[in-house]
Specification:
Chain lengths: 306, 327
C-alpha cells in the first residue's frame, strides 16, 4: 500500500506552509495533494508558493495533485476552480476534486482524482465517476470497513485506485458560516483570519470538558485523530491502494515514517499505535468509522490504558 | 406564476391535511433508510404511497418522493426499488441526492422527473447546470448556505428550477456533507437518514441540574425548572478556549416568511417547509399561512404580518444564510 498526504486543512503562514512541503520531499510518502481545501480567503496568502512546492515534490519523485475547494459558492471561487484546472495542467499536477463543481470545468475524458469530501458511498457512484475519468478516489471517512471492501473491489474492476482516510482529524462538516469568526464575534467577511491562531484547529469541548470536535473556519473536524493502524491488513486484503495522512503542524515526518513501517510490516498495530500516542498523549485516537460503533471509538483503547 | 408551496408529510394523515390546507405539492418518503427522515413511526408503506398519490392527484396536488440518502455499497437494490415503486405509485417526481442513483434513474426510468435533494448541496450555477445537463435534473433544492442575492444570481444562470427552504428546522452545515452525528452516535443523515437520533439521547438529573447527552457527550445543561431542549448536535452548547455557548448555532429554527417577495424576485420556483416529523395540525397551519402569503403576493396584496409567530412560540427564529451577516 502507498501513502498519500492530503491537502492541509488548516491556515498556516506561507513560510510554514512552504517548509512543510520542502520537508515532505524526503518523507516516505508516494503522493501529495496540496492547495486550499477549506476557505478561499486563505489562498492568496500562499498561492504564489504552490509552483515551487509542486516542482520540489515532483523532482523528489512524488506524484502531486492540486485540490479544489470543498464548498464553492462565490463567483471568485468558481473562477478559482476554473483556473485550478489550468494551473494543474501547467504544473504537471493532476486535480483532486473535493466539490463536484470542478467536474463542470473538466473536459470529458480528462483523468482526475476524487477527494474524501465528495460523496462516494456506493458502486454506482464510483462507476459513474470512473466513466467520467476518475483514476483515484479517497473514500469519505464516514464509511465502514464493509463499504470500503465493496468499493475497493469495485475499484479494481474499474481501474480506480481506492484510498482510505489513514490519519488525522476527520473532516466532519463544511458550512457557509465561519465558526472561528463567530467565536470572535466577527462576521465571515471581517474574520481577520482568526483561524490562523489554531494551526491544527481549535478543540471544541463538551460541558464535561471532554474534547469532542475541532473548529477550523467554515470546517468542523473531529477532535480525535483518526488512525487506521489496526485496519492495515484488512484494508490491504480488500485491495485498498493507499492510506491518506492529513497534515498536522507537529511530528508529521515521524508520523509518515511510522505509517510506512506499519505498511511494510516492520511495526505491528500495537507498536504503531503506541508510537503515535507517544508523540502527543493529549491527542486522542479513533478508528470507529471503520470498525467501531461510532466514529470516535478506538480499537486500541484497552492497550493505551494498560 | 404563483410560487409553489412544498409541504412535508410524515404520515398519510399529514399528507391529507396538507393537501386540504392548500398545499400545491407534498413530499414524503418510504418507511426505510432510503429517505433522510427515517424516524420510527414515520413515512409510507407502498400501499399508503399509492393511496396518498391518488388522494393528492384527486385534489389537484402533486407528490414528490424523497429517496435522498446515499445508497449503501452492496445494498443499492433497496434504493433502486424505492425509485421504481415511487414511479409505479404515480409520484410526480423523486428527490434524489446520490450521483449513482441519479444516473441509474435517468437510465432505468427516463420518464420519471428528478429533483436534486438539498442533500446534494449543489451551491452554484455550474454545479446545478451540470446536474441538469448530465443527469436530467429539473429542479434543485438549494443548500442553506446561500444569501438571497446569491440565489438570484444562480437563477439568472440556470434553467433548472430552484426550491428553497422557508420554514422549520435548520441545518447550519452544508447538507449531505455532515458526519458529526455519526462521529458521536454511529448514525448519520447520509447513511441512515437520521441526525442526532433519539436512540442515543439520554437525560441525567444530577441534583437539580439536568444534562442532555448525545452518544454520551453532554451538550446541554439546564437548571431546575428550565426546559431541556433536544440535544441536536450542531445546536448544542460547547466550550472552546475560554468561551462557552452555542458555538455553531443557537437553538433556532428557520422562518423566512418576510423574504417571500424577495425570493420570488430572485426567481425561486418553490418554497419548501421542513418537518416530516411534525403533526398534521402543525403542517396544516403552516401550509395555510404560506399559501395565503403566496396568493396575496400573486394578487399584489400586502403580505399577512407575523403569521407564523404562534407556531414558533417559545423558540427563536432566524432567516439563516439568506441574510449574509449570518455567516
Amino acid at each position: 500500500m502507498e501513502l498519500t498526504v492530503g491537502p492541509n486543512q488548516f491556515f498556516w503562514p506561507a513560510d510554514r506552509w512552504a517548509a512543510f512541503y520542502t520537508d515532505l520531499e524526503t518523507a516516505p510518502v508516494n503522493r501529495v495533494v496540496l492547495g486550499e481545501l477549506v476557505c478561499s480567503k486563505r489562498l492568496p496568502f500562499f498561492q504564489d508558493r504552490i509552483p515551487e512546492a509542486v516542482a520540489g515534490l515532483a523532482a523528489a519523485g512524488k506524484a502531486v495533485s492540486l485540490t479544489s475547494l470543498a464548498l464553492i459558492t462565490l463567483p471568485r471561487e468558481r473562477k478559482a476552480t476554473a483556473s485550478l484546472l489550468r494551473a494543474g495542467a501547467e504544473l504537471g499536477a493532476d486535480v483532486e476534486i473535493n466539490d463536484l463543481t470542478a467536474l463542470a470545468y473538466l473536459p470529458e475524458g480528462q483523468r482526475f482524482a476524487v477527494g474524501p469530501l465528495v460523496n462516494v458511498y456506493n458502486e454506482s457512484t464510483l462507476g459513474w465517476l470512473a466513466e467520467r475519468g476518475a483514476a483515484r478516489v479517497c473514500l469519505p471517512p464516514e464509511l465502514p470497513l464493509a463499504s470500503v471492501a465493496t468499493l475497493a473491489r469495485a475499484g479494481e474492476g474499474l481501474g480506480v485506485a481506492i484510498e482510505v482516510w489513514g490519519h488525522g482529524r476527520v473532516p466532519l462538516a463544511i458550512s457557509g458560516r465561519c465558526y472561528h469568526a463567530r467565536l470572535h464575534k466577527r462576521t465571515k467577511d471581517n474574520c481577520q483570519f482568526a483561524c490562523e491562531d489554531d494551526p491544527d484547529g481549535l478543540t471544541v469541548r463538551t460541558l464535561d470538558d471532554e474534547p469532542f470536535l475541532a473548529m477550523n473556519g467554515v470546517q468542523t473536524l473531529s477532535s480525535g485523530y483518526a488512525s487506521a493502524v489496526y485496519q492495515v491488513e484488512a484494508l490491504r486484503d480488500v485491495g485498498v491502494a493507499a492510506l491518506r495522512l492529513s497534515p498536522q503542524s507537529t511530528d508529521f515526518g515521524v508520523l509518515a515514517t511510522i505509517y510506512r513501517q506499519r505498511l511494510d510490516g516492520t511495526l505491528d498495530a500495537d507498536a504503531a499505535a503506541s508510537a503515535i500516542a507517544a508523540l502527543d498523549p493529549a491527542k486522542e485516537l479513533a478508528d470507529g468509522f471503520l470498525t467501531g460503533e461510532r466514529g470516535a471509538a478506538w480499537s486500541g483503547a484497552a492497550t493505551r490504558t494498560a | 406564476m404563483v410560487m409553489e408551496i412544498v409541504c412535508p408529510a410524515g404520515t398519510p394523515a399529514a399528507l391529507r391535511a396538507a393537501v386540504k390546507a392548500g398545499a400545491h405539492t407534498v413530499y414524503c418518503g418510504f418507511a426505510d433508510e432510503t429517505n433522510a427522515r427515517n424516524f420510527p413511526g414515520l413515512n409510507f408503506s407502498r400501499e399508503e404511497m399509492r393511496e396518498g398519490v391518488a388522494f393528492a392527484h384527486g385534489h389537484g396536488a402533486k407528490v414528490l418522493v424523497a429517496i435522498n440518502t446515499f445508497p449503501r455499497a452492496g445494498g443499492e437494490a433497496l434504493w433502486h426499488r424505492a425509485v421504481a415503486d415511487a414511479e409505479q405509485a404515480g409520484a410526480d417526481a423523486v428527490i434524489l441526492a446520490d450521483l449513482g442513483l441519479l444516473a441509474n434513474t435517468a437510465r432505468q426510468h427516463p420518464g420519471l422527473r428528478c429533483h436534486l435533494s438539498v442533500q446534494a448541496a449543489a451551491a452554484n450555477a455550474d454545479m446545478i447546470n451540470f446536474y441538469g445537463r448530465e443527469l436530467g435534473v429539473k429542479r434543485v433544492v438549494l443548500p442553506r448556505v446561500l444569501s438571497v442575492p446569491e440565489i438570484a444570481a444562480i437563477n439568472a444562470e440556470t434553467e433548472v428550477e430552484t426550491e428553497v427552504f422557508v420554514f422549520g428546522g435548520l441545518c447550519v452545515m452544508a447538507e449531505g456533507r455532515c458526519a458529526m452525528s455519526s462521529w458521536a452516535t454511529g448514525k448519520s443523515p447520509n447513511m441512515n437518514g437520521v441526525c442526532s437520533p433519539a436512540s442515543h439521547v439520554e437525560y441525567h438529573d444530577q441534583g437539580g441540574v439536568l444534562d442532555a447527552r448525545l452518544g454520551g457527550y453532554t451538550i446541554h445543561r439546564v437548571g431546575a425548572g428550565e426546559s431541556a431542549p433536544y440535544p441536536t448536535l450542531c445546536k448544542g452548547v460547547f466550550r472552546a478556549g475560554d468561551a462557552e455557548g452555542h458555538l455553531f448555532e443557537d437553538a433556532v429554527s428557520l422562518n423566512a416568511e418576510h423574504l417571500i417577495p424577495q425570493l420570488k424576485k430572485a426567481g425561486v420556483t418553490a418554497l419548501k417547509i421542513e418537518g416530516r416529523q411534525r403533526s398534521r395540525a402543525y403542517v396544516a397551519q403552516v401550509v395555510r399561512n404560506f399559501r395565503a402569503a403566496v396568493d396575496a403576493l400573486e394578487a399584489g396584496q400586502p403580505m399577512p404580518e407575523g403569521m407564523l409567530a404562534r407556531l414558533s412560540e417559545g423558540q427563536a427564529t432566524t432567516t439563516g444564510a439568506y441574510k449574509k451577516t449570518w455567516r
